Amino acid sequence: MRPTLKDWHVFPTVLGTLPLAVSASAAEPTPKRALLIVSKTRHALAIVEPVSLKVLGRVPVGEDPHEVVTSADGKTAYVSNTGFGRFHELNVIDLVAQKALPNVDTSPLMGMGTGQNRTHMLHVTADEKTLYTTNVDSGTVSILENVLLQPTVPPTGVLPPTAKPQMDWVQTLVPVAEHSEGFDVSPDGKELWSASPTGALSVVDLKAKKGVATVDAKLPGAHRLEFTPDGKRVLAVSVRTGELAVFDTGTRKEVKRLKIGRGAAMLMDAEGNRAFVSCTPDNDVAVIDLKTLEVTGHIDVGGRPDGLAFAVRR
Fold this sequence. Notes:
- The chain contains no helices and 25 strands.
- The chain is an all-beta fold.
- It has a domain of 123 residues.
């Protein structure tokens, strides 16, 4: 999922706030465009100036932080804190004041099952009518569409007078390479690529809702991938070998391969023509120039970086 929480409305159960004493002292003001990086070691959200790559401040989050998204106005961040289902909360961060707000307890919220094993990541289309997710242990991708369904005729053969069409979610399952987890959707919305630790990348035609290719990336431990902002390339990282492999989306052939560190989360920066890769086991974030396809810098946020997002204040 692209890291923006748009106009969703959640009515939470409040759990309380995180201890503010953990916040970094003498923090600098949050810039209008800030890079956000989760640190699993420090249990903090780092606020980074995206040009200088300087850490300006840190705000405490929960015990098991994972991903981060931001509100449409760029003033609030939400960090998932799962603990393998034990914590079921979102940490809420005021990015302007650089402080923790009351958490959101997700346990009362309605869930939508896929019938698959270990449903993990999520991508929401811009119109919020379609969801994509990987089901890691089932080796499938779920395409969930919010559509208008006509009432079903009961065994009597006669519709009750109250029967009427209603909106509901309909799922299509597409087989992909085993244990595929990381995935991304092309900027034009036509293809979904997923990464398998076997080293294979699966390509799904989203209009046809079927797999159309398997790319033998020879990238064992492939964990995450992202399309470049122009959609012409896919970058895939291995959390096992520390390699980043770049593929042309037209030919589906490898363009370049380089060592960057054992990559996990990835974020594209269209404005700076860069990619940021959280190399979680190696304790830094690698910065990749998308023109030269070389590593141009590293960011240290205090150990085991993971989720990445941009916050653009409006």
